[in-house]
Amino acid sequence: KETSVSRETTQSRNLYEKAKKVMPGGVTANIKYFSPYPIVMKKGAGSKLYDVDGNEYIDYLLCYGALMTGHGHPRVIEKVTEQLHDAGTPIFGTPHELEVTMAEKLVSLYKSIDTVRYTNSGMEATLLAMRIAAAYTGKNRLAKCEGHYHGGYSQVLYSVNPEQNEGGPEEKPEAVPDSSGMSSEEKPLILPFNNAGAAEYLLRANASTISAVILEPVQGGFIPADPGFLQMLRRVTKELGIVLIFDEVKTGFRLGLGGAQEEYGITPDLTTLGKVLGGGFPVGAVGGSKDIMEVSSPDGGKDILAGNSSEEGKALFHSGTYNGHPTVLAAGLETIALLEEPGALKGIFQKTMALRKGIESLYSEAGIPVQTIGKGSIFNFLFTKSPIHSHRDLKRVNMDFRKQIDCKLLELGIYTKPLNRYSMSIAHTEEDIERTLQAHKQALADI
Ligand code: PMP
């Protein structure tokens, strides 16, 4: 019944018109825009979002994966309120107990993590990890993979752009800026994801300048690394004195409580976390082996580092007014507690698989080539049978039909930003999945 209603979104359009006058492009982040205007939300509850016109949506964006317990889980809200009430202030600006409790939790869950530093976003976490690696190795050029996202700053906003014929061949990619207004620092070394032979060659050829390799173990949360690619990176970085950073901002907690590193059985030197860690509040963290992390201690890890750093004993400057925010950590700790409950993760994975299977059969039965890809609680669906292992594979897929489907789905009450992946939460129900599949069926029929 619900899915046949064509939606009225006048209030969204009116607000967007106002927003355009006071914010560039009418949005607070470029990714929030889509044509003809973004839907403006007013309320969230469990798996649902409600827009300013009163329409209900089943939410698969989940704030780009951050909300793994859904919108406003009563236990998370209660802990946040309790924390604010008991402390009598949102923040102390001094050390406090939850910082230690959360760090102990991360040390127990993540094999690579001995010690932790907090930031306020995933982007700050990758930036800090990169600087820790530079301080530790005395080198400062980064290596990153094609199409991998680590935040919006100059050192990592490089990839290749095969659609425009920019970036050269996969065996020898050239760094192409993803943005205007980049700083003039040295470009990162670009590695082809899942091409172990070429990536190893490039790393060996540039080893003397490379401080770290940073990558998403599952690109964009849905293109898994081949185990052999990660094994090569672990072996070669160790041999060449390069720090291996797993950016688990997206995969952390979502593939398993111990992240992708647990699933793959590969331990990086540094791990970056964010999103789920804050239970919906802004957060980031860097964790890693004690000897490397120690460069950020107030004495610069003088004793431990002896002989490893070109600036031995000089502390790495790490600061942030809001780092380790008590309200945020209260939300994050309760979120992790909910995910640790027996069957919680398994339940999400089963629901994710049910939705993936449903989408695959629905389009296949209509004779449309389709595949779903992903791991754990995140997936994407693509209208192609060609295997997808990399950014270049992804860029070869025609997304026109997918975009039409997504826009139709929005009208039918299924929310994700067009062309975005689906993330699932403990709040999604079997009924949500059933409704989502009905909406896909209807979207396909309408198109
Ligand atoms: N790294 C990865 C893998 C991410 O997915 C993101 C966010 N999409 C970031 C870093 C940046 O995190 P934030 O948006 O919290 O700055």
Task: Outline the fold blueprint.
Blueprint: H1 10-22, E1 41-45, E2 48-51, E3 56-59, H2 74-87, H3 97-109, E4 115-119, H4 122-137, E5 141-145, E6 158-159, E7 176-177, E8 189-191, H5 196-206, E9 210-215, E10 218-219, E11 223-224, H6 227-240, E12 243-247, H7 259-264, E13 270-274, E14 284-288, H8 290-293, H9 302-305, H10 326-340, H11 344-365, E15 371-375, E16 378-382, H12 391-395, H13 400-411, E17 414-415, E18 422-423, H14 430-446
Parallel strand pairs: 3-17, 5-8, 5-9, 9-12, 12-13
Antiparallel strand pairs: 1-2, 2-3, 4-14, 6-7, 10-11, 13-14, 15-16, 16-18
Helix pairs in contact: 2-10, 3-10, 5-6, 11-14, 13-14
Bound molecules: 4'-deoxy-4'-aminopyridoxal-5'-phosphate.
Family: Belongs to the class-III pyridoxal-phosphate-dependent aminotransferase family.
Region (Disordered): 160-184
Protein name: Glutamate-1-semialdehyde 2,1-aminomutase
Structural summary, described in words:
InterPro entries: Aminotrans_3 (IPR005814), Aminotrans_3_PPA_site (IPR049704), PyrdxlP-dep_Trfase (IPR015424), PyrdxlP-dep_Trfase_major (IPR015421), PyrdxlP-dep_Trfase_small (IPR015422). The chain is an alpha/beta fold and 447 residues long. It has two domains: 1-59, no CATH class; 74-340, Type I PLP-dependent aspartate aminotransferase-like (Major domain) (Aspartate Aminotransferase, domain 2), CATH 3.40.640.10. 37% of the residues lie in helices and 15% in strands. The protein contains 14 helices and 18 strands. Helix 2 (74-87) packs antiparallel against helix 10, helix 5 (196-206) packs parallel to helix 6 and helix 11 (344-365) packs parallel to helix 14. The radius of gyration is 22 Å and the shape is globular. The protein starts with 9 loop residues before the first helix and ends with a helix. The model is unreliable at 1-5 (pLDDT under 50). 4'-deoxy-4'-aminopyridoxal-5'-phosphate is lined by residues 64, 121-123, 126, 149-151, 216, 247, 249-250, 274.
